[in-house]
Write a structure and sequence with these properties.
- This protein is 81% helix and 0% strand.
- It contains five helices and no strands.
- The chain starts with 7 loop residues before the first helix and ends with a helix.
């Protein structure tokens, strides 16, 4: 029979801290439970349900973030207000990070509660929480990178447009001077 993990809640909270925020930290579950990681196929139905609900919530979050980002870019296209666009992107990035952290906190809280009610499942819970936390952190890095890349793309497009305008009109002026100087 599996026994409870010493300091289960503390380990979960350290794991949560490692996987939330824009600057993540290294976390090694093996330092706490050794190499005794159980098979995830042994997870109780209730634990699978908690994880499935988290997956559904995070997928809904991603869909909403995509819609919000597209809307923000469309507003820039319609309004042409770069300052508002950049500020809105900064706010949306902060909101996305906060929403992600809130969801993982809720998930980890439910895992802690489940683990305290079912001590025999604590090693399994730690293994699942570690895998999910690491995966979500990787995915959130990609989501946050979307914000950075969109802003950089807009800035580069504006810069490219300005360079194109300058280059084209410099060429037009030069061509015009050459044309008129060749007349006489």
């Amino acid at each position: 029979m599996t026994v409870a993990v010493k300091n289960f809640s503390s380990i979960m909270n350290q794991m949560r801290d490692a996987y939330t925020g824009e600057q993540t930290k290294e976390f090694s579950l093996a330092a706490f439970i050794g190499l005794q990681a159980p098979s995830l196929s042994d997870a109780p139905d209730e634990l699978q349900k908690l994880t499935q609900e988290y997956q559904e919530n995070i997928n809904s979050f991603y869909v909403q973030e995509e819609l919000d980002l597209k809307e923000n870019v469309k507003q820039l296209e319609n309004d042409k207000n770069q300052t508002a666009f950049f500020e809105n992107m900064r706010k949306k990035k902060e909101e996305a990070l906060k929403k992600s952290e809130d969801m993982i906190n809720k998930y980890y809280d439910s895992l802690i509660d489940f683990g305290e009610e079912h001590p025999a499942a604590q090693t399994l819970i730690l293994t699942i929480a570690d895998k999910v936390g690491a995966f979500i952190q990787d995915i959130m890095d990609k989501v946050l990178n979307v914000f950075v890349t969109v802003v950089e793309t807009v800035k580069n497009a504006i810069s490219a447009a300005i360079n194109f305008i300058s280059s084209t009109f410099n060429s037009i002026v030069s061509t015009t001077k050459n044309f008129f100087s060749s007349l006489f």
